[in-house]
Design brief:
Blueprint lengths: L2 H7 L3 H9 L7 E7 L4 E7 L4 E6 L24 H20 L6 H8 L26 E4 L4 E5 L10 E5 L16 E2 L3 H5 L1 H18 L4 H14 L4 H13 L3 H11 L6 H14 L3 H12 L6 H9 L10 E2 L4 E2 L3
Length: about 325
C-alpha cells in the first residue's frame, strides 16, 4: 500500500499506523506521520519483517536516516562509521536548533534550520559534510496548519538554499482562483547570501558527484573537487575525496598532500583515521606505516571495519577504491 492511499483513506493517526503496518516494504524504510488535528507526530520505522512507531511527546520531532526504536536499532545497516555518524550528526544538530528555538519557530526559522550548513564536529560553516542542509536535498516543505499554508522549496538541489513559496493547503485549493493565488516568498538561505564562496564550492561538489557516479569520469570529478577546494580549502570531506581520486589516477604525491592536510585541519576523529590509513597505504617507509596504522589500531573509538583493515595492512589496490561521495568515506577499506 502506498502512502498516497493512506493519505486518502486514513482519518486518524492510529488508522494510518494500522494501514501502514499491514503493508511492509521489501527493504528498510521510515515514514514521518503527522496528524495536525490530533497533534501527534511519529516516525513509522519498518523493514520487510518488522514495524515500530517512534512517537514524540515533547513538542518536536527530528528524524534522519536511522532507526531509533529499541526493537529496530539492531537492524540499522552498518556500512561504515562515516555513514553512521552522518545520520547521527545531522540529527543532533537539527535537534539542537529546534530546542534552541522551541516555541518561537517561524516559517523563516524553520527554513533556516533546514538549510543549516554548520558542521557539528567543528562548529564551522562548511560547503559539504555532516550538515543538515544536504547537497542532494531535492524536496523541502514547511507546513503552517493554523495559517492554512504550505511552503515548498523551489529550484534545483539543494532546494533548501533557493527559497520557498507558499501554497494553500491541498483541501483549500480552488481550481477557479488558483492561478491568481498570491504566494508569499522566503528568499535564499543565509548560507547563500553570507557565504557565496561556500555555496559555489557546494555546486562544484555536486558536479564532481555527477561526474563520478553518473558519467564515470574520474578526471572530471577530480577537477570539480579541486574547484570546490578553492572556496572551502579546509574541508576534510573534500580533501579526502580528492586524495582518493588522485590514488585512482595514480597521482600518489598529490594524494599524500591531501591526506596530510587532513591531519592539520579541523575534522572528526574518523576523518583523521581515514587520512592515517591511506597515508600508511602509500608510504614506502615501514616505520611511518606502523605509526599511521597504530593511530587507528590503538584507538578504542575506531571504526571496527577500519581497524580490521589496518591490522591486516594489505597492499593498496587502486582499482578497488570505491568512494562514497556523500559521506566522504569508502564502501570498503
Amino acid at each position: 500500500m502506498s502512502m498516497t492511499e493512506v493519505l486518502r483513506h486514513a482519518r486518524t493517526f492510529q488508522e494510518a499506523v494500522d494501514m501502514v503496518s499491514q503493508s511492509l516494504p521489501p527493504s528498510g524504510w521510515g515514514y514521518d506521520l503527522v496528524s495536525i488535528r490530533e497533534k501527534r507526530v511519529a516516525t513509522l520505522e519498518m523493514s520487510n519483517k518488522s514495524f515500530s512507531v517512534r512517537e514524540s511527546t515533547n513538542g518536536y520531532h527530528v528524524q534522519t536516516n536511522e532507526y531509533h526504536t529499541p526493537s529496530m536499532v539492531d537492524k540499522n545497516l552498518y556500512v561504515n562509521y562515516g555513514v553512521h555518524i552522518d545520520s547521527v550528526a545531522r540529527h543532533t544538530r537539527a535537534e539542537q536548533l529546534v530546542q534552541q528555538h522551541k516555541g518561537f519557530i517561524t516559517t523563516k526559522t524553520a527554513a533556516a534550520i533546514l538549510s543549516d550548513q554548520v558542521d557539528p564536529f567543528t562548529k564551522q560553516v562548511r560547503s559539504v559534510g555532516n550538515t543538515v542542509g544536504l547537497h542532494e536535498t531535492v524536496g523541502s516543505v514547511i507546513v503552517r496548519p493554523v495559517e492554512r499554508q504550505v511552503f515548498a522549496a523551489i529550484g534545483m538541489a539543494p532546494v533548501v538554499h533557493n527559497g520557498y513559496i507558499s501554497l494553500p493547503m491541498p483541501e483549500d485549493v480552488n481550481e477557479n482562483t488558483f492561478l491568481s493565488f498570491q504566494s508569499e516568498k522566503i528568499g535564499k538561505s543565509d548560507f547563500v547570501v553570507n557565504h557565496p564562496e561556500m555555496a559555489q564550492a557546494e555546486q562544484d561538489f555536486i558536479k564532481a558527484k555527477v561526474a563520478y557516479e553518473f558519467e564515470h569520469n574520474i578526471p572530471a570529478a577530480r577537477g570539480y573537487l579541486q574547484d570546490a577546494l578553492v572556496n572551502d580549502s579546509s574541508n576534510p570531506h573534500i580533501l579526502f575525496l580528492l586524495g582518493i581520486f588522485d590514488l585512482k589516477l595514480n597521482q600518489f604525491s598529490t594524494a599524500k598532500a591531501s591526506f596530510e592536510k587532513m591531519l592539520t585541519v579541523q575534522g572528526s576523529l574518523h576523518q583523521k583515521m581515514l587520512a592515517h590509513y591511506y597515508l600508511a597505504k602509500i608510504s614506502s617507509n615501514s616505520s611511518e606505516q606502523e605509526a599511521h596504522y597504530a593511530f587507528i589500531t590503538g584507538n578504542e573509538n575506531a571504526d571496527p571495519k577500519l581497524k580490521k583493515a589496518a591490522l591486516k595492512a594489505a597492499k593498496l589496490k587502486t582499482k578497488k577504491l570505491h568512494p562514497m561521495i556523500q559521506q566522504g568515506d569508502m564502501e570498503q577499506y
